[in-house]
Amino acid sequence: MAPYEPEQDTTEADELSAGRRKAVRYVVPLAVAGVAAATIGLVPALATSGDPDLPDITAQELIEKIAASDTEQLSGTVKISTDLGLPSFGSGMTGGFAPGGGDGEGGKDGKSAADPSAKLMELASGTHTLRIAVDGPDKQKLSVLDDAAEYSLIHNGDDVWAYDSASNEAYHSKDGGAHADKNGKGDRKDLPKELPATPKEFAEQALKAAEKSSTSVKVDGSAQVAGRDAYRLVLKPKDSGSTVGQITIAVDEKTGTPLKFTLSPAGGGSAVVDAGFTKVDFGKPSAATFDFEPPKGTKVTEKGDAADKPGHRGEDFKGEGPEGLNVIGEGWTSIAELRIPGGQGLPTSGAGSDEVPQEAAKFLDSLGDKVSGDFGSGTVFKTRLVNALVTDDGTVYAGAVTKDALVKAANAAQ
């Protein structure tokens, strides 16, 4: 087993930074292109056969090993568990996010039930099993499996297909990879952005954060994931105020491919995100894996149809983000600041309206903590990882930081 390595302090940050930047640039795609880092893998405890005895390696060498990975072909099964500590509202409010959920016939408001921009958001909560196949930057397939249904997203050359077996609906667009680079990244306007789905994509985001802030980085022994020997790379924020306790990345000893990602919260308890392979094969997938023809009777929505017009779900992930978005700080303790249109905060229990009934306003009150400061007053809404302060004058401060850090940022912005 690789020995426990003393934490590397800030004097080594420059040496690690170059390796991190290379890792972020060159780690190979493991899932459908464009399904990359939003918010939120594998069941918390994957079966192992004991920690393997591997040659010694430093954190810098392991990061460089990730950067040098040339894996372009693989297939396998990934399990994702995400526990943000959010309350369950029942199928009446969340049915549209699960495979086979939604309205039975199509999505809500005439939107396609197969639209990937909303469908893949289900990965942000609960436990899911994914099947993944990759053959270079132009061929990827990701399938979200349910007990009686399957949702698949297929990128094959210029075509992007999404198919929901429960509703028998499909979503199709052309030029899905026309602007992709050699790593399968690029201007894929038809695929959700910033939504991690594989250990590699989670790891990429973690390395970005580690590059920009004070971070403890070390190799903490070894593990076996999906029958393969792996090193454990551990990242810990040194700055106070972050809700992230530590991130553990299991890196394949032979290929340098991230096999498992675990994010533990600073508050303790079970992992917020646990994502990893249960089965993996680094051989070339069959070409037929990426072929798709809509089954007979399938309702097909083409890009540009009504459900894909501005204001509909197909537009939700386009653009660079909300107008007026400002990022305060960097790395683990960065906070996003933006204004709510209209310059008003959330309704309170005493401010019900036709749009927001008093009962709903009371419910919002019950979910948050009232705070005040130089900025005025507002409400902090908390999960086990991401917290958000909504001020009464309509400004939002959000990040993987503590309530006190949000209040401090709001005060400093005055």
Structure description:
This protein is an alpha+beta fold. The protein contains 7 helices and 18 strands. Strands 7-8-9-10-11-1-2-3-4-5-6-12 form a 12-stranded mixed sheet, covered by helices on one side. Strands 13-14-18-17-16-15 form a 6-stranded antiparallel sheet. The longest helix is centred in the first third of the chain and has 14 residues. The N terminus is likely disordered.
Key features of this structure:
6-stranded antiparallel β-sheet, 414 residues, outer membrane lipoprotein receptor (LolB), chain A, globular, 16% helix, alpha+beta
What's this, in brief?
With 414 residues, this protein is of the alpha+beta class. It is 16% helix and 31% strand. It has seven helices and 18 strands.
